[in-house]
Write a structure and sequence with these properties.
The complex is a heterodimer of chains A (235) and B (93). Chain A contains seven helices and two strands, in the order E-E-H-H-H-H-H-H-H. Chain A has 235 residues and is mainly alpha-helical. The relative contact order of chain A is 0.13. With 93 residues, chain B is mainly α. Chain B has one domain: F1F0 ATP synthase subunit C (F1FO ATP Synthase, Up-down Bundle). Helix content of chain B is 90%, strand content 0%. The two termini of chain B are 19 Å apart. The chains are: A mainly alpha (235), B mainly alpha (93).
Chain lengths: 235, 93
């Protein structure tokens, strides 16, 4: 029973192996980069735009709005990182409809790599936004005793990001594989549809959590307390 | 019972118990979360976008503990290091 696409090896020479994870990741990168480049070759701002440009605009403005709602005040700075995370994970999950494709996020190495990217990006964004001293001071924020707990929580939430994504994608693939040996006709299609849904939800969750971590690291504490927080709801 | 039998029995039983407990707890938690989200949606329908988004984020966090239990069960059944070690010993003999 195959646990991950790491075990399908296409080519190996010495210590370098090309397994299915790497090949499918390259395929996704190629498709996303070349597709975006082709669509954005001739951008137009008047009323006549191509359908693909409209599609990309919908996607980009939706991601920007979500990043703004999470609490990041300058979404254009973070949309490169967060948008790429979301688009890569969404594409990795959507391409499951192609026969013979295994999502590369079903391998723990891919998800740990993505979680490490978030782990590195959070201090980088925090330091560029707040300065090194203010960012480091946030680790001792409630009291000095909380320093080890804050560090441990940083590490553990990175691990949780990786394992959550890996578990969801791996379980989807495994359920389909098991069902194919038991009831090979209709049920696997239903489970594939469910796997698509959970893949999209997990892509959204991963990027929203990354945005929340970055927002927590970059929030600049204002000296005066904020008093208005919508006391008058619109009637 | 030799060590091979003990390892096999322990792995199988614990894999089943891990999945059993790992699905009960998160299911209860998610049920509570969804019911609270539904009642707050009924009270304030125009905040439905925020409520739905927060609900999904919360559900994913709760689901991740179930996923941890699932991963441990899978490791015990399919990638068990103790079983592999014992099998390698027996094959080597």
């Amino acid at each position: 029973m195959r646990l991950s696409p790491d075990q399908i090896v296409f080519w190996h020479h010495g210590p370098i192996t090309l397994n299915a994870t790497i090949v499918f990741t390259w395929g996704l990168m190629f498709a996303l980069a070349v597709g975006s480049k082709l669509i954005t070759r001739r951008l137009s701002t008047d009323l006549k735009r191509s359908r693909w440009q409209c599609l990309l605009e919908i996607v980009v403005t939706a991601i920007e709005k979500q990043i703004g709602e999470v609490g990041l005040h300058n979404p254009k700075r973070y949309i490169g990182f967060l948008g790429t995370l979301f688009l890569f994970l969404a594409a990795a999950s959507l391409c499951t409809v192609i026969p013979g494709y295994e999502p590369p996020t079903g391998s723990l190495s891919t998800t740990i790599a993505l979680a490490l990217c978030v782990f590195v990006a959070v201090p980088i964004f925090g330091i560029t936004e707040r300065g090194l001293g203010s960012y480091l001071k946030s680790y001792v924020k409630p009291t000095f005793v909380m320093l080890p707990f804050n560090i441990i929580s940083e590490i553990s939430r990175t691990l949780a990001l990786a394992v959550r994504l890996f578990g969801n994608m791996m379980s989807g693939a495994m359920i389909i594989a098991i069902l194919l040996t038991i009831v090979p006709f209709v049920f696997p299609i239903v489970m594939t549809a469910l796997g698509l849904l959970t893949g999209m939800v997990q892509a959204y969750i991963f990027s929203i959590l990354a945005a929340v971590y970055i927002a927590a690291a970059t929030q600049v504490r204002k000296p005066a307390t904020e008093t208005e927080s919508e006391p008058e709801a619109t009637h | 019972m030799d060590s091979m039998t003990i390892i096999a029995v322990a792995s199988i039983v614990i894999a089943g118990i891990t999945t059993a407990f790992g699905t009960m707890g998160p299911a209860l938690g998610e049920g509570k979360a969804v019911s609270t989200a539904l009642s707050s949606l009924a009270q304030q329908p125009d905040a439905s976008a925020t409520i739905t988004r927060t609900l999904f984020v919360g559900l994913a966090m709760i689901e991740s503990t179930a996923i941890y239990c699932f991963v441990v069960s899978m490791i015990l059944i399919f990638a068990n290091p103790f079983w592999n070690h014992v099998i390698a010993d027996v094959a080597g003999k």
